[in-house]
Design a protein that fits this description.
- By secondary structure, the chain is α/β, with parallel strands linked by helices.
- The chain folds into 2 domains: 10-210, Alpha-Beta Barrel (TIM Barrel), CATH 3.20.20.10; 222-343, Lyase, Ornithine Decarboxylase, Chain A, domain 1 (Beta Barrel).
- Helix content is 30%, strand content 23%.
- It has 11 helices and 19 strands.
- The strands form 5 sheets. The protein has a 7-stranded parallel β-sheet with strand order 3-4-5-6-7-8-9. Strands 1, 11, 14, 17, 18 and 19 form a 6-stranded mixed β-sheet that branches. It has a two-stranded parallel sheet with strand order 2-10.
- The structure holds pyridoxal-5'-phosphate.
- Pyridoxal-5'-phosphate (PLP) is lined by residues 31, 33, 80, 154, 188-190, 204-208.
C-alpha cells in the first residue's frame, strides 16, 4: 500500500472522555467539530454515545446534519455557529440545537422554528461569538420563555491558568447568567482543568478527547506510519529534494517516504521534523514535498518498511511544536489519503 496508515484509538478517546467527565462537576459533552478534530466524527461520536455522552457539539448545521445520520435520534447535537440564514430546514429536519449568537439569530429562529429548542451563546470577553451583555439583557426574558436548552460561553485563555482573563470571564458569565433556569456551560478542555468553579452544569471538551494539550494526562489517540517507497545512497556533496536544500556531509542513506504537505505534514516541517524507526529518530533531509518526504536513515542498521511520524516517541503536540503550530492544527490537518484503521470501534 502506498498510503500512510493512520490508526485512531477509539478506546483511548473513550478513556479520555471518561477521565474528563470524572474531573467535571456536572455533565460532560463532546466536541466533534471538524470531523472530530480529524479523527472521524461518525466513529468518535458513535463510540462516545455508547459510553454515555449525550451532548455533542459541532461548528455548523451541515456538520450537525451529517452527525445526526450517524448518531440517529436521541443525543443532543448543538451548533456553535447558531442559526444561520438558510439553515432552518437542516436544523428542523435533523433536530439540531443552534446556539443563538445574536438578537438577529434569535429573531430568525423564532420566525422559522418557533417551538424548536435552542441554546444561547454569550460573549463573556473573548469577542468572537455570542451575545454581548446588553443584547442578552434585551432578549433574555423572551428567550427564557421558550425552549431554551443551554446558556454557554467560551474562555479565550483557559490553557494559561494564570491569565487574568479567565477569572474576568468567569465573573462576567456568572453575572450574565444569575438566576437563569437553563443549564449553563463555560468550559472546554482547558476550563475543566481550571477547577470546578468553571464547570457549571455541562463541560464541552474537544482536544483533550483526542489526546492533545492542555490535557497532559490524556492517552495518545493517533498514530501515523508512513511507507518507505525507496532507499538510495547519496555521496558527500550531493543534494536531496527541491531547492537542493539538503547536502550530504557523509555517505548518506535516504529513505523516500509516502506522505507530504497534501496530507497535512506542512512544508514548514522541512529540515526540522523527525520520523522514527522504533525508538530511533531519523531527521527529515530537505524539503517536504506534496506527496513525499526524504529522511536520513544512515544511522539505522536496518530500514523498516514503514517510518512513524506520530507514535509513542513523538506525539501530536511534539510534532506541532516542531512545526510551529498547535496540536489542534496537526489533528485537523490529518490527510484524507491515509488508510484509516480504528481500534475499539
Ligand atoms: C472548539 C470549542 C470547544 C472545544 O475546545 P477544546 O479546547 O478543543 O476542548 C468548546 N467550545 C467552543 C465554543 C469551541 O469553539
Amino acid at each position: 500500500m502506498g498510503t500512510g496508515i493512520l490508526t485512531i484509538d477509539l478506546n483511548a478517546i473513550a478513556a479520555n472522555w471518561r477521565a474528563l467527565a470524572g474531573l467535571s462537576r456536572g455533565q460532560t459533552g463532546a466536541v466533534v467539530k471538524a470531523n472530530a478534530y480529524g479523527c472521524g466524527a461518525a466513529e468518535v461520536a458513535t463510540r462516545l454515545a455508547r459510553d454515555g455522552a449525550r451532548q455533542f457539539f459541532v461548528a455548523t448545521a451541515e456538520e450537525g446534519a451529517t452527525l445526526r445520520k450517524a448518531l440517529g435520534p436521541g443525543p443532543e447535537i448543538n451548533i456553535f455557529s447558531g442559526h444561520m440564514a438558510g439553515d432552518s430546514a437542516l436544523i428542523g429536519d435533523h433536530a439540531l440545537t443552534p446556539m443563538l449568537n445574536s438578537p438577529a439569530q434569535a429573531a430568525r429562529h423564532r420566525a422559522a422554528l418557533p417551538d424548536h429548542p435552542y441554546g444561547v451563546q454569550l460573549d463573556s470577553g473573548m469577542n468572537r461569538l455570542g451575545m454581548e451583555a446588553p443584547e442578552w439583557a434585551a432578549t433574555r426574558a423572551e428567550l427564557e420563555a421558550g425552549p431554551l436548552s443551554l446558556v454557554m460561553s467560551h474562555l479565550a485563555c483557559a490553557d494559561e491558568p494564570d491569565h487574568p482573563l479567565n477569572a474576568a470571564q468567569l465573573r462576567a458569565f456568572v453575572q450574565m447568567t444569575q438566576g437563569v433556569s437553563a443549564p449553563r456551560s463555560l468550559s472546554a478542555t482547558g476550563g475543566i482543568l481550571l477547577g470546578p468553579e468553571y464547570h457549571f452544569d455541562l463541560t464541552r471538551p474537544g482536544v483533550g478527547l483526542y489526546g492533545g494539550a492542555p490535557f497532559g494526562a490524556a492517552q495518545p489517540v493517533v498514530a501515523l506510519s508512513l511507507p518507505v517507497v525507496q532507499l538510495r545512497d547519496v555521496a558527500p556533496g550531493e543534494t536531496v529534494g527541491y531547492a537542493a536544500s539538503f547536502t550530504a556531509r557523509r555517505p548518506t542513506r535516504i529513505a523516500t517516504v509516502s506522505a507530504g504537505y497534501a496530507d497535512g505534514l506542512i512544508r514548514y516541517m522541512s529540515g526540522k521534523a523527525q520520523l522514527f524507526a522504533g525508538a530511533v529518530a531519523c531527521p527529515l533531509a530537505g524539503r517536504v514535498s506534496m506527496d513525499l518526504l526524504t529522511v536520513d536513515v544512515t544511522d539505522l542498521t536496518e530500514v523498516p518498511d514503514h517510518l512513524d511520524i506520530l507514535c509513542a516517541h513523538q506525539g501530536v503536540d511534539d510534532l506541532a511544536s516542531v512545526a510551529g503550530t498547535i496540536g489542534y492544527e496537526i489533528l485537523t490537518s490529518l490527510g484524507r489519503r491515509y488508510g484509516r484503521r480504528y481500534l475499539g470501534s
